[in-house]
Amino acid sequence: MSTPAATVTTPARRSAPAAAGSAPRRTVRPRTVIIAGLAWLLAAVFLLPYLEMVVTAVRPAGELRDATYLPGHFQWSNLIDVWRESNLGSNLRVTLLVAGGSTLLVLLVALPAAYYTARTRFRGRTVFLLLVLVTQMFQPTSLLVGLYREFYQFDMLNSVWTLILCNGAFNLAFAIWILTAYIGSIPVELEEAAMIDGLGRVGALFRVTLPLAMPGVVTAVIFTFIAAWNEFVMGLTLSTVPDSQPLTVGINSFVGNYTVQWNYLFAGSVVAIVPVVILFAFIERHVVSGLTAGSVE
Predict the structure, then answer these.
(1) HEC profile for the chain?
(2) What distance lies between CA 139 and its chain's CA centroid?
(3) Using N-to-C axis directions, what is the helix angle for 160-184 and 262-293, rounded to 10°?
(4) Cα 265 from Cα 287, distance rounded (Å)
(5) pTM assigned to the model
(6) Cβ burial, residue 159 (10 Å; 0-12/13-18/19+)
(7) Which residue from 239, 242, 222, 240 is spatially nearest to 178, judged by alpha carbons?
(8) Is the per-residue pLDDT at 239 higher than 80?
(9) Which of 23, 58, 88, 256 has the most CB atoms at less than 10 Å from its CB?
């Protein structure tokens, strides 16, 4: 009796394993390329004026009217001469004092106000927040006459403290609004747990709430600092002595009635934007997180 033949099954052929250390190839989608190209194009459009400012700052005076984009040679001495032939050093010192002092004043007033508003449901709270928002709509130019007469009566014209008070007052509403929304998004149970452990209200504020609210604080700081740094109208009206004027007004002195010193004007502009760019580069991620996390109460 014959035995049945054994059935031989051939295993399915497997694909060859990938070479050791080789990474899978990523497929670049056309949509990604188009979006990236548009993003770079948009960035170039916004950066070209700043590049033109830097190029003009080091352009010789005899080549200011040339049609060429780049000068024949770069005159780096413009960045040094602008300090010698103007009050740019004094103007920069005044601007640093005004921007820093205004920011500190806003924090000292806005933090307690925002904390109390966020944690206490007092009568008239909604009206208070509405008034804070309404005061943000006032333009400094509409109050310049009254401010000038008031500071003239107190003999406070041409003073750094005057500019600090004005810039702090006009930026206070925005800081209170941002900090109120951000502190309100922090659970109050964290403070209650800290107070059970022995901390008082002030201790819970500085040890628990304030560290968690730091992105919102940084957002208020950067916006207040930039607003005070770029302020022009109040500095022009309340400070008439060149040494007591901020940087924005000092740069305007290069614009005469009949001529404009473009190389010095743009050299001073480069000096004016460098500190703000450096500051924003360091704390940019905190600003983004503060705007997004504190936007919903």
Answers:
(1) CCCCCCCCCCCCCCCCCCCCCCCCCCCCCHHHHHHHHHHHHHHHHHHHHHHHHHHHHCCCHHHCCCCCCCCCCCCCCHHHHHHHCCCHHHHHHHHHHHHHHHHHHHHHHHHHHHHHHHHCCCCCHHHHHHHHHHHCCCCHHHHHHHHHHHHHHCCCCCCHHHHHHHHHHHHHHHHHHHHHHHHHCCCHHHHHHHHHCCCCHHHHHHHHHHHHCHHHHHHHHHHHHHHHHHCCHHHHHHCCCHHHCCHHHHHHCCECCCCECHHHHHHHHHHHHHHHHHHHHHHHHHHHHHHHHCCCC
(2) 20
(3) 30
(4) 30
(5) 0.76
(6) middle
(7) 222
(8) yes
(9) 88
d(CA 252, CA 256): 9
Query: Six-digit token pair at 37?
Result: 């190209």
- Residue with the two structure tokens 């580069």: 281
What integer pLDDT is reported at residue 285 of this predicted model?
Answer: 67
What pLDDT is recorded for position 288? 59
Q: For residues 234 and 151, what is the distance between their CA atoms, to the nearest angstrom?
A: 12
Tokens of 176: 């209170």
Cα–Cα distance for residue pair 166/98, rounded to 1 Å: 10
Binned at pLDDT 50, 70 and 90, residue 294 comes out as: very low
pLDDT in tens, 45-76: 988 888 888 888 888 877 777 777 777 778 88
Predicted local distance difference test score (pLDDT) of residue 160: 93
Distance CA 293, CA 190 (A): 17
Q: How far is CA 170 from the centre of its chain?
A: 16
**How far apart are alpha carbons 129 and 113 in whole angstroms?**
11
